[in-house]
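User: I'm new to structure prediction. If I give you an amino acid sequence, what do you actually give back? Let's try with this one:
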Amino acid sequence: MESSVIWLSIATVVALLFSGLLGAVESALSSVSRARVEQMLKDEASGSASLLRVIDERALHINMLIMLRTLLDASAAVFAGAIAVNVMDSWAWGIVLAIVVVSLLTFAVVGVFGRTVGRKNPYSVMLRSAVVLSGLAKILGPIARGLIWIGNIIAPGPGFRNGPYATEVELREMVDIAQEHGIVEIEERRMIQSVFDLASTTVRQVMVPRPEMIWIESGKTAGQATALCVRSGHSRIPVIGENVDDIIGIVYLKDLVQKTYYATDGGKSVLVDEVMREATFVPDSKSLDALLQEMQEDHKHIAILVDEYGGVAGLISIEDILEEIVGEIADEYDAREVAPIEKIGDRTYRVVSRLSLEDLKDHIEEELDLEIEFGDEIEDQVDTVGGLIAFELGRVPLPGATVETCGLKLTAEGAKNRRGRLRMHSAVVEVGEPSEDNEG
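Assistant: Good question. You get back a string of structure tokens that encode the predicted 3D arrangement of the chain. For your 440 residues, that looks like this:
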């Protein structure tokens, strides 16, 4: 009896130690970077070639490690249960004691010690274990794949091809943790998070809206189009037919220059219709990541957005999409643009008319520590500051128009456009003092 207890105790300890070792390897494998391993291979680091092969099939090896660790943990629990039954008078209490002890040891050895070692020394751990891991994968890899296949049959949904991957939420949390530990900079974290946001952001949210589009009529000369490009600072301009909803093409500045540079008449003999390229039309509900991929494949730099009724809603350039990732890309023309939000008083701001209500709300709440509520009706029907003024007025706002709503006083600002018509381009927002009820 005593001999069997000794051997069972040794088996329990060995199972837990190996489980902790596998936990360290699993944690290390999840942390290593392929780019760094490739650099180590160039530096001829020992074990780097085997490690690179492991990384090529990372999911398979992680699944195999999970399978082995589960087997060892279960074995340790069985061995501990057998010991407890032999030692204690009551087998029921013996099983309970075994479960508690093994659970605590598994958490300490695998969950804390093993994973901590793996995360702190991922490359050292993996370089030493890559060869053994590759050998185990050749033997146990088919078993791991078979278990994944069985799990995918049992589980609802499409299942995993190579096993469980991290969800988007988990990946976002990993980026946040990496930033907290100084692995990535704050700006790098913002850019990575912005990439995740591309899939949930529609082109409608970042487009240049129809009223702010610069366009040229069909029948105008290349010289006139070149002059418009120079004045506006845009290198690509839509060409319209009967009206703005009838966009027949896009004229590129580089094409205009080729036609007008050597022309003796300044490009008066060449019409934009002869120079323009085919326009690309996409629905304004399309996601940014889908449009970016489409633009890359088709080598397009600008797209016309169409709303649900078939009318032109606005346009978007590939630069607009990239700015969602890397932030504002300023050039010699953008330097003269008005800042989206400019503080001009203690509780007064000048904002561009196309600023979203969400951005305005976030800015005011963060700076003044004041909660702004626009209400369901406004949030359902209005997206921008200019739209809010138009909604409250019941008409298109002209410069000088003033409305008061939701504790804000908004005054439209603007000037004459190139056709001599008054158009709103910004607004002065005055934030009212909080009431005593709100303060309480």
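You can read the tokens as a compact description of the fold. Here is one thing that stands out. The chain is about 55% helix and 15% strand.
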